[in-house]
Structure formats: C-alpha cells, structure tokens
C-alpha cells in the first residue's frame, strides 16, 4: 500500500469518527483546567473538522489582530518617525485591495491546506487530544527548532523565487507593495503561499519523523509566533523596542523592509545569519553604512 493510499484511508477514518475524551485521559491522571478546556473543544466532535476550525480561526485572529497595532500607528503622528519608508503612504485603497486578496487566499488556499494537514501530521506523530499537554521547556525547544528550519527553507526558496522567470510568474505579486505594511505578509501568489507554507508546517512534521512527537498545542503556539514574526517583518515600522535591537541576529522589519524597497538582498525570514553567511546582505550593509554616516554628519552639523 503506497503512502498516499495510507493517508487517504486515514483521512476517511478521521472524517467519520468523533472524539470521546473519557478515552483520552490516562487511568489515574487528573487533567489540569487547561487540559480539560483543551479536550472539551474536541469532545463529541469530529477531530479533523475541529482541528481545522481551531487552526483557521486562530490564524485569522492572530494575523489580523497582530496587524491592528501597526494600523493604529498609521494614524498616530508621534509614531510617524518610526516608519521606515516615511515618504511612502499606505492608502486606504491599497489596504482594501490587500484585504480582498488575503481573504480569498485564506479561505480557498490556506483553509484547504489546513484541512489536509492533520491526516499527514497524525501519521508522522503529531498529538492532538493526548495527555499530558507539553511543558514549556518542551515547547520552547521545539519551537526554536521550527524557527531555524523555517528560516533555512524560507531563505533558499526565497532566493529561488527571485530567479527571473519565477519572479515574473509568481513572486512579483508579493512585491506589488514596495513599502510593505503588516497585512501584506501573506499577500502572495497561490503557488508561493503553498510552497512557503511548507516551511511552517514542515518543521513539526520533520521533528516528529526524526526526533520525537509534537503536540498540536505546540504547533499552534509555533504558528502564532511565526505569524507575529511575519506581520512584524512587513509592518514598515522600526521601533527602539523592536526585537532586532535586543537580538542582533533577529531580522525584523528593518531587515525585510529593505528587501521590498530594493528588490534585492535579505532573503531570510527570521534571522540574519544566512544572508550574512552567503553574502546576500552586502547591498543592505552598504545602505545601512550610508544611513549611519548621514546621521552622524547631520548630528555634527546640528
């Protein structure tokens, strides 16, 4: 029996069944309030559909919720000085165009992907309703690994998408906004959405396959942090408290905004080390050096 048949058979089983949480609690184990709440989401419901609904609702809430503070910044004059490309305004028309495409992508591309994820993930070893839930140490280690794996995938795929034919056919859509704003993080061609998305879900599946099991709670925490990172990187704002000012290896908006403005360099998503290692931040470094020099000369003149 080939792997596709196994996955399809497993999916059919998941669609037809419901979860009985009384069978999920180990004998003699007393679930915490958080564990009881988690199990209650699935109790008497179809596991596949419930997991997909949780994933989709969480994604929408986190994605657009993370964007709202940056949207508010657009209307606070005192924060204008932190906008990276201050000379380029984001119009209401641009925001609506972005939102319309995003909703189509979320419902008709990402939604079906979420629906198809669990049957494969369960075969790889993803836990959903199993107890106990993971502790913070386990979650922290696994999420750190997922960040590194996703960043590596993103770097090389992103470089590939800047190859002429692929850029013109696919990646050019994402670069319609040379001055990005938070909501543009997932504004992309459907093929790009699918391929880049493999870096997000691939880490947990690979971890399950070669290291150890991953719980769905960890998976959702990872996706939440990944969405925070993606929206922040496209926010168009660089604040004194931005993470890259505390962790120099973190990419952040300062790093990625240059990529949108110049269409070159800075292909990583979360970290700066791949661009530095492979010399794909040379123009960015020269740009930052010119900025620093101009700032020093201005301060001296004042």
UniProtKB/TrEMBL annotation:
Subcellular localization: Membrane
Residue ranges annotated for the Fatty acid hydroxylase domain, each copy included: 144-280
GO molecular function: iron ion binding; oxidoreductase activity
Keyword entries, A-Z: Membrane, Transmembrane, Transmembrane helix
Xref: InterPro entries: Fatty_acid_hydroxylase (IPR006694), Sterol_Desaturase_Related (IPR050307)
Gene Ontology terms describing biological process: lipid biosynthetic process
The organism's place on the tree of life at top rank: Eukaryota
Keyword Lyase: no
Pfam families found in the cross-reference section: FA_hydroxylase
A single GO cellular-component term on record: membrane
Residue ranges crossing the lipid bilayer per the database entry: 102-121
Record protein name field: C-4 methylsterol oxidase
Source species: Coemansia reversa (strain ATCC 12441 / NRRL 1564)
